[in-house]
Amino acid sequence: MQKPPVPFTSALNLALDPDPFSADPTRPWAADLLRDCARAFSERDSANLQRLLWMLNELASPYGDREQRLAYAFLQALFCGATASGYHCYTTSLAVAERAISFASTLRLALKFQEAAPWTTFGHVAANGALLQALDAVPAIHIVDVSDTFCTQWPTLLEALASRAEVDAPRIRLTVVASAASAGVMSEIGVRIQKFARLMGVPLEFRAVAAPSSPRFADALRPEELELRDGETVAVNCVSALRRAGNGGSRDAFLRAAAALQPMVVTVVEDEADFAGVGEYAESFEECLRFYGAYFDMLEESFPATSNERLALERESFRSLVGVLACDGRGPDRVGDGERRERGRQWCRRLERCGFKTFGFSDDVVDDLKALLRRYRPGWSLLPAEGDSSGMYLTWKEEPVVWSCAWKPK
Amino acid sequence: MAGVEEAVSKMPPPVPAIKKKRSLPGTPDPEAEVIALSPRTLLATNRFVCEICGKGFQRDQNLQLHRRGHNLPWRLKQRSGDRAAPRKRVYVCPESSCVHHNPGRALGDLTGIKKHYCRKHGEKKWKCEKCSKKYAVQSDWKAHAKTCGTREYRCDCGVVFSRRDSFITHRAFCDALAEESARVSAAYNVTNAASIADSADYLFLQQGLNAKPNPFPHLTPPTQFKPNAASINQLLDMGLVAGASTFYGDLVGPNPSRFNWMQSNKFPLSTSEFSPSALPAASSSSSAVDLTESAPALFAAPSLHHPPAPDMSATALLQKAAQVGVTSRMGFAGSFEPSSYKCQSTADGSKFDGVQFAQNHASMLKDFLGGETRDFLGVGVGLQSLCHSSVNGWI
């Protein structure tokens, strides 16, 4: 019996699969091929690597389906690794992004992502919930926002503070520590968030400062840098910020600096992935496959097929992967270290070591998170941390992808 | 029942009320008997107990209905204890810090005081699944659950949201917000620059321009304004900030293109279906305030500049309006089906009157809204009140 001719991707599977007649063109093919590439790379098998990269290049595309886009993302990182051009590639990519950044495009991207998936809003709701809990009756608050969320976290907090019955809205001072790339748009962001706060009847003072480069990240939290004032209660909000503090030592330094501010609460949101172990390439690679596999899958199911926002988010991932797989912390800025995410469990150990104890989310916050997830497409769920780690995970198809937790000084 | 403490006293002499008009909640009849129930009693759900079988009920009426089922001989139907003509009872709140703790502000209804105590001082046991808003009274929670998630939030820039959190976040950064503040503050400079101090609260510009008919009399003047939970919703939903592109917002910050739902306006008729009495008030105010810089289109319609004589018939108004082009400002009415107008106008004009017109307006409004009480302002305003306010305060 003649079988119809199979498309090329299945031809590839035929080569790898012992049973040729089970070939299924829709079966995920990228992970296996990528693992082969990773093996060839770590074994320094250049002939094989070249062949595999050629194949990868033929199959990958930034405009195709999830498999093709994932393949394309890793292709960049593998190529940079193979040609030892990770440092150059990363810094160029960063410079290009900085030049292209604009208020309108940045905001549109952030808001569209929040509409499509709870990836970022999960952290906002959890952190805001903890802030509201911890700062219940405080009249003057200084929020140190170490993040690149462009203040999209704050409107709902401002509205919640303004709507509290019986209690007047507190005075808020918001100091945003944003990466240098965002500096250009922060002034316009500040104007708008202040207008909105005025509308809400919440007195808000805004200031944006550029984050120092990773080895000196802790400098951002020096009291004189933040211009602390008497009588105000400090809250530190770190969204995808802890990992930007460079390597292990710098991260601890940053956390200690935060503790030294004697904040009422420190809220942390981080991607749930372990890219910090620089040891075995294969292990890091596997972890990248798990995390970015889930990320690209989530993006495919959350956005329409031709979405530009999805493209923009995937492009950011290309840079992250280059940072993780093709950079070795070279240069004074330790380029790429900012991409080395750690898992919640690991952050918990760090935070405890640096003088913090965990501050659990109340039932109300958990209910808010559940209600949040219900507003999106199915596939998302919550997973409370267990054992020696604390906080809450956001999971995509059972895979934990984002971690959030609240802390106070011991 | 245990726990009922009765403090019987006469009311302090009140301000004599000659006319019977609806007063503030908790301004009771001076001759009434003041009852102070304990918190436990107020929170108890089954106060009324049948003496025959011991079954408890929330309301006296329900208990009486139940007792009938026991087929008692007529004698035993009388409640135990011979009561004289019962005095009217009013109830005070046991919470000493509460305004209703004072007998002068007691509430006249037992269910009312129970609900009040529960809502204000009680534990919020009922929680909405969708938005996790909490309620102390079950009926409040049920009422909320019906509308939760069905509301739509419309931003001034035209985008509609089904989720409140997305709406709030969008609103905070929306261009419409930024623009409108700029434009309205320009209007400010023209009119009331002196009277507005350094607190540049764009929000209060409508109140500042005090010649305008104020469609929101419930909002307090700027100096006392503190947004509370209820008004926050109004601020956000009504687009009050930017003051544009809602029914009322047009009075301040006009921008014809913002009226998204009237852009396909192809009907030639304007405001003629509104009762004539609404127009003179508006036009006098319009002439008093010079807003030509910021409100060019608002006063362009001739029907405003020349208020019709009060005794002008509806038919005559229609004919007059037919000569005038419609602006999108008046377009809400204009977007109605012209066929229904034609139908009215061919009828004998003398049979028309203002009442008839208002009724027709209401039904046309309902049709336009697709038969539902969908409110564009997103504040859950009932259809009736929407009509009323639009007739009186719109122009």
Describe this structure in words.
The complex is a heterodimer of chains A (410) and B (395). Chain A is 50% helix and 15% strand. Chain A is α/β, with parallel strands linked by helices and 410 residues long. In chain A, strands 1, 2, 3, 4, 5, 6, 7, 8 and 9 form a 9-stranded mixed sheet that branches. In chain A, helix 2 runs antiparallel to helix 3 (46-59). The model of chain A is unreliable at 6-15 and 17-22 (pLDDT under 50). With 395 residues, chain B is mainly alpha-helical. Chain B is 36% helix and 5% strand. In chain B, helix 15 (354-368) crosses helix 16 (383-393). The N and C termini of chain B lie far apart (58 Å). At the A-B interface, helix 6, helix 8, helix 9 and helix 15 of A face helix 6, helix 7 and helix 9 of B.
Write a short abstract of this structure.
With 410 residues, chain A is an alpha/beta fold.
Write the layout of secondary structure elements.
The complex is a heterodimer of chains A (about 400) and B (about 400).
Chain A: H1 8-16, H2 30-42, H3 46-59, H4 66-82, H5 86-100, H6 103-116, H7 121-134, E1 140-146, H8 154-163, E2 171-178, H9 183-200, E3 204-210, H10 223-226, E4 233-239, H11 248-260, E5 265-271, H12 281-302, H13 308-326, H14 344-353, E6 356-358, H15 363-374, E7 380-384, E8 392-396, E9 399-409
Helix pairs in contact in A: 2-3, 2-4, 2-12, 3-4, 4-12, 4-13, 5-13, 6-13, 7-8, 7-15, 8-9, 12-13
Chain B: E1 33-36, H1 39-43, E2 48-49, E3 56-57, H2 60-68, H3 74-77, E4 89-92, H4 110-121, E5 126-127, E6 134-135, H5 138-147, E7 153-154, E8 160-161, H6 164-173, H7 175-190, H8 205-208, H9 229-237, H10 278-288, H11 302-305, H12 314-323, H13 331-334, H14 338-346, H15 354-368, H16 383-393
Parallel strand pairs in B: 1-4
Antiparallel strand pairs in B: 2-3, 5-6, 7-8
Helix pairs in contact in B: 15-16
